[in-house]
Every structure is written in structure tokens, then in C-alpha cells.
Recover the amino acids of this structure.
């Protein structure tokens, strides 16, 4: 058994004195694990940082074996973000979420390309809206997609302001006004026709918090709780960081 593919480092776990068990999201083979020998060397440690893009070759005697990886660095995203705590936390969160939620050896090419795009977007000013959109995409890829295109009550695509926690469908301002205490806020940058990120004004952090609350609600209910997965600590740290930006400790 032998193949080569492009991948994104998700995590490593030490095996013996000088090897690690590497988990990587590949384009064609999905989330895949393998052993990397000599991984504790200084040069290889820099290659295997979560979030980095690598070219991997995997080989094993039988398909069901752990196998061995040969790795070549193609994109050092982790090093690029070392001095940017927010984007670095978002990158760590994305890698940990993929590692915890994706089934092994099941291809998700759209999610792979979306994650590559996220790694580039984390170096831009609108990194957090990009991360929240990535979580919306993760939910869709895992079968829990949100319908944010039209109002569940009126079937109109305008004035969308809420999301139903029961159905995951958008609700307009007018249709949801009487039930707003039971609905989740839909930030404008996620609504149909509002693709740009929040403006640099007083409502920016509120929209971003609403976006993390929205995706977090469905991630916790439909993935963590439903599948018995322990909540991802890296995501919790990102959420805490965003709340601390405004001095608000409420989550």
C-alpha cells in the first residue's frame, strides 16, 4: 500500500524516543494517520506544526496498518502566525475540530480546500469572519448544514435576522420578532447577500460573538453531544479570546 497526497497537519502524538503518530487531513484520503520516524529532530518539528501544509507519502504492508509517512513542508502557516494570537488560536481550533470530528480515511475534498483557504485567510484582517464561515462549512460537511438562504416562515431571502435552533433555518426580522428570545441571532456577514465581514465599528464584536454562538450551538448539540465527543479545548480558548477583546466574560 503506497500513495502520495497533499495534506494539512492536524496533530502529533509522541511514539517512542524519536517518532510521532501524525494525523493529517489529505485531499484525496481524508483524515489519515501514520508514523513519522525521526520526527523529534529540530527541522522535522517545525514541519509538523498543526496548520502547516505538507506533501505526504504513506506506505504500509496492509491497508489496515498504521503505516509510515514521509513528509515535505509546502506551507509554513504556523510560523507565519506566531505573533498573532487570535489567528493562531483559530488555526489551532480548526485543526483540533477536524481531528476530533472527521471519520478516518473518508475523503472530504471540499472541506480540505476550504481549510487550505482558511489558512490563507487567517493572515488577513477579516480572519475571524473567515473562521466562522469555515465552521458553517464544517457543519454542512458533517451533515448538519444550516439553511441561511431564505426565511423558514416566508421563504423570502431578505431581512434575515435569526436562526431557528430547532431546524437550523434562517428567519426574517419580521417573522421572528415575536419569538426572538427563542431564536439565535444571525450576524449580517453570514446572511444571504452580505458576504463581506463586519464593519470596523461598534457592532463588529457583537456580530462576531453572535457568529461563534450560532455555530457553537449546533456544533455542541449535533456533534459533541450527539456523538459523545469531548468539547474541543482549542475552540473554547478561541471563544474566550474573542470575548476578552471587549472585556466581556459572558460566553
Amino acid at each position: 500500500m503506497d500513495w502520495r497526497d497533499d495534506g494539512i497537519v492536524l496533530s502529533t502524538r509522541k511514539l517512542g524516543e524519536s517518532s510521532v503518530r501524525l494525523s493529517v487531513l489529505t485531499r484525496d484520503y481524508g483524515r489519515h494517520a501514520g508514523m513519522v520516524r525521526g520526527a523529534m529532530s529540530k527541522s522535522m518539528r517545525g514541519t509538523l506544526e498543526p496548520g502547516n501544509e505538507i506533501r505526504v507519502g504513506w506506505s504500509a504492508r496492509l491497508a489496515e496498518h498504521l503505516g509510515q509517512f514521509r513528509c515535505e513542508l509546502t506551507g509554513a502557516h504556523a510560523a507565519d502566525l506566531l505573533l498573532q494570537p487570535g489567528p493562531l488560536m483559530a488555526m489551532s481550533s480548526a485543526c483540533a475540530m477536524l481531528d476530533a470530528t472527521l471519520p478516518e480515511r473518508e475523503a472530504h475534498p471540499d472541506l480540505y480546500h476550504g481549510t487550505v483557504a482558511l489558512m490563507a485567510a487567517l493572515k488577513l484582517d477579516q480572519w475571524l469572519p473567515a473562521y466562522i464561515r469555515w465552521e458553517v462549512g464544517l457543519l454542512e460537511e458533517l451533515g448538519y448544514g444550516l439553511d441561511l438562504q431564505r426565511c423558514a416562515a416566508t421563504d423570502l431571502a431578505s431581512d434575515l435576522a435569526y436562526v431557528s435552533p430547532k431546524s437550523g433555518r434562517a428567519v426574517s426580522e419580521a417573522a421572528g420578532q415575536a419569538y426572538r428570545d427563542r431564536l439565535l441571532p444571525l450576524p449580517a456577514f453570514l446572511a444571504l447577500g452580505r458576504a463581506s465581514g463586519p464593519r470596523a465599528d461598534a457592532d463588529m464584536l457583537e456580530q462576531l460573538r453572535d457568529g461563534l454562538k450560532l455555530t457553537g450551538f449546533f456544533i455542541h448539540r449535533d456533534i459533541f453531544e450527539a456523538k459523545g465527543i469531548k468539547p474541543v479545548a482549542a475552540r473554547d480558548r478561541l471563544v474566550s479570546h474573542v470575548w476578552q477583546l471587549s472585556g466581556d466574560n459572558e460566553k
Remarks:
- The chain is about 40% helix and 20% strand.
- The mean pLDDT is 92.
- The two ends are 47 Å apart (CA to CA).
